[in-house]
Design a protein that fits this description.
heterodimer, A: 10-stranded antiparallel β-sheet, B: alpha+beta, 15 helices, globular
């Protein structure tokens, strides 16, 4: 046993001496080769874990179909935006944009609708209120709505309600439900088919509501209106040929 | 060994660094917009998604994509952007202020072709005719602004859109589009070289707010901005009286006038295509009816009914009738060939009277030497365009999929027993007073 150990040590010494005698400095090329091998292995590991393994997990959750609004389903908001929610990026960005935008609302209103401007209307919201209540609405049609939801687990959903294209009907609406992917892009989710707008909104808290509508007023004038959280975001008021177009209070009356 | 390692390393880095549906290395410019227009004019065809092989023998990477009208419009722009490594950006329809672009990395692990196809499918599930106003703007009326690669959009009531393949030298749009996607729809697109009825295009809102009419793509910098701020935004098309809209716009877009014969031939062709296209659509409904005798639910009924299709054919007949009347009014028809006059007189036997009066006077019109577009509409049964017009104008043609073939094609006046006993939706009947 001791003899075998001695032979081993001796062999190692001989080997070391032999190598010492022939060893040369490691060439730059060898360094680069091994660096490339290690880099490639790192990339492969990254690719496997981040793109294949986790990607498959995400894919397992994906399913998509079209879900028409069930006949008779109302599209009126079941929830009003929760005043207590923490403002998300969209709302903050919009507030900043509003504060930066110019204000020529009164001059433009005076130019396009002097008879309305004479009613001392100071804001787009007041204008809409005046048109709806004083002029009167013959028809008010919502063509598109987006509800931004936050679920109890903190994840986000969007409910998109839009006039259906793939139909002969002029006013059929379609509900689409989306989750948001890691990059913030919408990703359509499968609906069973028996959902209503109310049942989808009941999944979480509405943090933002966007609605586009078209109003036909009793005097024959029309308004195309986009509201965000009950605030006028953008509108075009066609006052018998004169079109007042505004985003916030930044307006034009050509 | 060393070179192999460098190659493998580069390849792996390329695969792992992929972070977009495609990498855009170019930027939209007037030159690329011109290339886009030329590409649409030459490459954008009705078989773009239905041909299995390209002319060079390679398999068609876009084969088998099924889409509706808005999907078709977006596909035209997306595919050109992809093939030319240009950015594609639109406003996110689900959130004001956000965008969707080719930079999405959702399909990173997939092949380039699969990434593109998945991006297209994703778009089809997200966009609609109602998202088009966010991504396009209304243009002025000239050949510089209305050209290949642009689009036409209707108001939300009729929720339809067309791509402009070309503005013909006579000032008429050559449109490529798709309609309602049914369960048996193929992958082919549709086309027409004539004006859609402007009453239908602008129905209920002939103002800029209706977003209907000719439009073009917004530069990315003008997404999520008020449409009236987009360079080139114009309200010109909404200032033309609707009853003169086609004549005015066509004159502005025309490089040369088409002869009366050419115009009538073109309109006859469009109307004939509406008639023959209906044969396939009705057959799908009749095939379904053979296997399912119970009342249809709304979705099935909607798939197999044809009210919008029937209205479009009716509109095409009315356009043809108006054109013939105007020609007679202007020159008495002396520029028309005798053959075409015979064909027209068979379709419109009382052209000087109202459409309603003509319909009352018109008897059954059998096929003869003046017949146009003789078509087998049911197995062993044929009729020409004149007879189809008679039945359509008389309200005999049924768009109700509960009716069998004899009712659908106006041999018998409906509704049939089954149609009476089942619920129906979205009926349409011809309005002969709208001349």
């Amino acid at each position: 046993m001791q003899e075998a150990a001695n032979r081993g040590i001796l062999g190692l010494r001989i080997s070391l001496q032999s190598n010492k005698g022939t060893m040369e400095p490691i060439k730059l090329r060898t360094w680069i080769t091994w660096a490339l091998i290690l880099f490639a292995l790192g990339l492969l590991a990254d690719y496997f874990f981040l793109h294949l393994l986790f990607h498959e997990k995400n894919n397992a959750k994906k399913e998509v179909i079209t879900a028409p609004v069930t006949p008779g389903a109302t599209v009126a908001p079941a929830h009003t935006p929760d005043e207590t929610f923490i403002a998300d990026n969209e709302n903050e960005a919009e507030s900043e944009a509003e504060s930066r935008s110019k204000d020529n609302f009164l001059e433009s209103l005076q130019k396009c609708a002097p008879e309305v401007a004479a009613q001392a209307i100071a804001t787009p919201e007041a204008l809409m209120e005046y048109l709806k209540k004083s002029v009167g609405v013959s028809k008010d049609e919502i063509s598109l709505e987006n509800y931004h939801l936050t679920l109890p687990d903190g994840s986000k959903r969007r409910v998109h309600v839009v006039i259906a294209d793939n139909t002969n009907s002029p006013d059929k609406k379609e509900i689409r439900l989306f989750k948001l992917d890691a990059e913030g892009y919408p990703e359509r989710l499968k609906l069973r088919g028996d959902e209503t707008l109310e049942s989808l909104l009941a999944m979480g808290t509405v943090t933002r509501h966007e609605a586009k509508s078209e109003l036909l007023l009793k005097d024959g004038s029309t308004v195309s209106l986009e509201m965000h959280d009950k605030k006028v975001f953008e509108f075009q008021y066609n006052n018998h040929g004169k079109v007042l177009s505004c985003r916030f209070k930044d307006c034009q009356c050509p | 060994m060393f070179r192999s390692l460098i190659f493998v390393g580069t390849l792996l880095a390329g695969i792992c660094a992929q972070a977009a549906v495609w990498t855009d290395v170019n930027a939209w410019s007037p030159a690329y917009e011109a290339r886009f227009a030329e590409w649409v004019r030459t490459e954008w065809r009705v078989d773009f998604f239905s041909r299995k092989y390209l002319p060079n023998g390679q398999s068609n990477p876009y084969y088998g994509m099924r889409m509706d009208c808005a999907d078709t419009v977006y596909s035209m722009r997306i595919i050109f952007a992809y093939e030319n490594r240009l950015p594609f950006v639109i406003q996110d329809p689900t959130a004001s202020g956000k965008t969707i672009s080719n930079k999405m990395s959702r399909w990173d692990s997939q092949s380039e072709n699969n990434r593109l196809r998945n991006f297209l499918w994703f778009m089809y599930e997200t966009i609609s005719t109602r998202s088009l106003p966010n991504d396009t703007y209304p243009v002025a009326i000239s050949r510089d602004t209305i050209h290949s690669g642009g689009l036409m959009l209707t108001t939300k009531k009729n929720h339809h859109s067309w791509t402009i393949k070309e503005i013909l030298p006579i000032g008429v749009p050559y449109l490529v589009y798709n309609s309602v996607v049914g369960s048996n729809s193929g992958y082919g697109l549709q086309e027409r070289q004539s004006w859609p009825n402007p009453d239908w295009v602008f129905e209920t809102d002939f103002t800029p707010a209706g977003s209907a009419g000719f439009r073009y793509w917004r530069p990315a910098a003008y997404l999520n901005r008020p449409v009236w701020e987009v360079p080139g935004y114009s309200e010109e098309q909404y200032r033309i009286p609707l009853n003169k809209w086609v004549r005015y716009v066509q004159n502005r877009l025309a490089l040369r006038q088409e002869t009366d014969n050419q115009m009538i031939t073109r309109l006859l062709k469009t109307t004939c295509e509406g008639f023959t296209g209906r044969v396939t659509a009705v057959k799908e409904g009749l095939d379904y009816l053979k296997k399912n005798s119970r009342c249809m639910d709304y979705a099935t009924y909607d798939t197999y009914s044809t009210p919008n299709r029937d209205r479009r054919v009716f509109d095409d007949f009315m356009s043809l009738r108006r054109a013939y009347r105007e020609i007679l009014h202007i020159n008495g028809g002396n520029q028309l060939s005798p053959e075409i006059i015979n064909q027209l007189n068979k379709i419109f036997p009382a052209i000087n009277q109202s459409a309603a009066a003509e319909t009352q006077r018109m008897g059954v019109s059998g096929a003869n030497s003046a017949s146009v577009c003789v078509t087998e509409y049911l197995p062993g049964k044929t009729m020409d365009l004149a007879e189809f017009k008679r039945r359509l104008f008389a309200g005999l043609i049924s768009n109700n999929p509960h009716d069998d073939g004899a009712y659908r094609w106006g041999e018998l006046r409906g509704p049939s027993q089954r149609a009476r006993s089942c619920q129906s939706w979205d009926p349409w009947t011809p309005d002969l007073s709208a001349e």
